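## Example pair
The file below holds two records. Each record gives the amino-acid sequence first, followed by its structure token line.
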Amino acid sequence: MGFWSFLLGRPVKIGDAFFGEMQWVEITSDPPKSYFECERYFKPSGKKIGLSVTGLLGGPTPRQKDFFAQVEANYSLLVAKFIPLIEAEFGAWLPLPVIKSFAAEFKPIGLDIPACDKLPILWEITFDTLHDVNHTVTVRMLDDEPQYVRLDG
């Protein structure tokens, strides 16, 4: 055990059959915002993406696993809804040509999975883009409708 692990305690990790190894991040000031961090293979990109899964120390729920599977299954339909908002947001401060190939121009790198215990479901998906390597693009969703796009960098 290293000095900091001894002093601060080891991170709590669990193994989940669906999500794999997950590290617990406890928000002591607001426990309902506590979450797990992990990576999982994402079929639409053919690569792993980072996941933030809100929940309790007992692990993710079947609803959260179903939610992830639904995002994978409906990804192409969701992308069609992302494109106009991303073009508008980029166009407000950077010259972005019309997106020709979303899969080539935007790579999913993160997905925030909420508790999924009440409707509507508010969630986010984040992308790297070749249009600006210094920024990420996050789409905020309410169920399957995009609410807004945020550029972070």
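Second record, same layout:
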Amino acid sequence: MRLAPKFTPFAKLSKHKQRDAYIKMRGEIKRTQNQYGKNFTSRYLFEPERPAICNQDFDFFFLGLDGYTILDATLTSATHEYWVKMEQMASDKADELKPKSDFNIRDIFMPVYDSSGRLKHYTMETKKEEPSPEYGGRTRYEFERYYEAELIHNDTGNTAPVYEYFRMDTSYKHGIGLHAVLDLPEINAETIEGMIAKFRAMGEKPWHNDVPVPHSNMPKDSFLNLITGTKEAK
């Protein structure tokens, strides 16, 4: 097995190298400001034609105010964080009802032999998911989507509270990692600029709100049901 090449995290580079990278990123931000915003750039593109519900997270780069720091950031909405928590709870419930069998790679790679019985190669075979009585006659996927929607429908605010925060990670290669969760209706250029302004105003430090996002701001159904127009989980 080929291991991923090792690298020196940005946080451990010399100040000289950090400054060089900073200047280069500053030029990239300026070059792409008409595409993104005056304070950030990204490897990814906005898709304005998509509905707002689909624009709930985005990865981008911006600069710290110290002249050396690059932030390799992910901004996630509280809505997205809420869905992730509910999905995990649904997966945990499915495991509780019917634990997954031990994974064996031989179960998905099937040998193919020639006419002489000699092994030619392996082919990947995806087994069709079967309904299970433990899941009420549903497949695992169907059960998880059903249970997730039920959790959301029955939530009064205590099932999966979501907190806003800025969390930093110094192990990233191209900057200081920053994962931000904020209560936003959509992630776009405007809300990213607002997040950057908030982060800078708070001293460019980790932060965790002690008060959860109001439950009234949370989605009232699962992403799948909302995007497909399904009204109820039955």
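Notes on the second record: The helical segments are 15-31, 78-97, 140-154, 189-201, 223-228. The mean pLDDT is 91.
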